[in-house]
Amino acid sequence: MGSKNKLKRFKENETFTNVVQPTREDVMAGFEYKGKWASFFGNNNPIVLELGCGKGEYTVGLAQINPEKNHIGIDIKGARFWRGAKTALEENLDNVAFLRSQIELVDYLFAEGEVSEIWITFPDPQIKYKRTKHRMTNPVFLERYKKILVPGGLVNLKTDSEYMHGYTLGLLQGLGHEIVYANHDVYKNEGAPSEVLKIQTFYENQYLEKGKSITYIQFRIN
């Protein structure tokens, strides 16, 4: 993507009513919507997060399927989620928001028990050992998610990475967390939730065309 196109998208994001772009300093000092996301949406419906939302395809797709829930896509790259934010506005989806911030600040962005469900879709598996701290299902991240989730809140991991799938399964089992459902190839085996099968991102379609398996885990953090 050219720099001019990026700048255009950054400027357009600033005009979108469904985009929130706090500075890191604002977040650390006391984010205005922490514990008050109901005021942003104008209702007390359950909040579903997509972490590392990219173009926002899953956030928008989930919002279309579940209009009774509020959906927030989080990513630091605003030029990417511009597409999802624009689509949501064009389709008058008032249960969608996009938040430009770092994932590691998630417990500064949401209050304890403010989130009902989390989706992590096709994250970078960070395979190298020295990158473990950036892996989105490592123990530190799981503790952050636990803080903001309601008791019994679900976390969903959908990925093309067998490594990420295996790492997460092993970690969850080792730490005693509840694995609700696990599947190493959702399109060949039965039982995956409809949201896993109905929504396919641009990159997911590319993976499928190459014959890659799509894995999925749904779990609760104890």
TrEMBL record:
- The positions annotated for binding S-adenosyl-L-methionine are 50, 75, 124
Q: Name the reaction it catalyses.
A: guanosine(46) in tRNA + S-adenosyl-L-methionine = N(7)-methylguanosine(46) in tRNA + S-adenosyl-L-homocysteine
Q: Which InterPro entries match?
A: SAM-dependent_MTases_sf, tRNA_(Gua-N-7)_MeTrfase_Trmb, tRNA_methyltr_TrmB_bact
Please tell me one Gene Ontology term that the record gives under cellular component. tRNA methyltransferase complex
What does UniProt give as the signal peptide span? none
Q: Which Pfam families match?
A: Methyltransf_4
| Stored SUPFAM superfamilies | S-adenosyl-L-methionine-dependent methyltransferases
Q: Which UniProt keywords apply?
A: Methyltransferase, S-adenosyl-L-methionine, Transferase, tRNA processing
What is the uppermost EC class here? transferase
**What protein family does this chain belong to?**
Belongs to the class I-like SAM-binding methyltransferase superfamily. TrmB family.
| PANTHER family, alphabetized | 3-DEOXY-D-MANNO-OCTULOSONIC-ACID TRANSFERASE/TRNA GUANINE-N 7 - -METHYLTRANSFERASE, PENTACOTRIPEPTIDE-REPEAT REGION OF PRORP DOMAIN-CONTAINING PROTEIN
Please explain the role this protein plays, according to its UniProt record. Catalyzes the formation of N(7)-methylguanine at position 46 (m7G46) in tRNA.
Q: What is this protein called?
A: tRNA (guanine-N(7)-)-methyltransferase
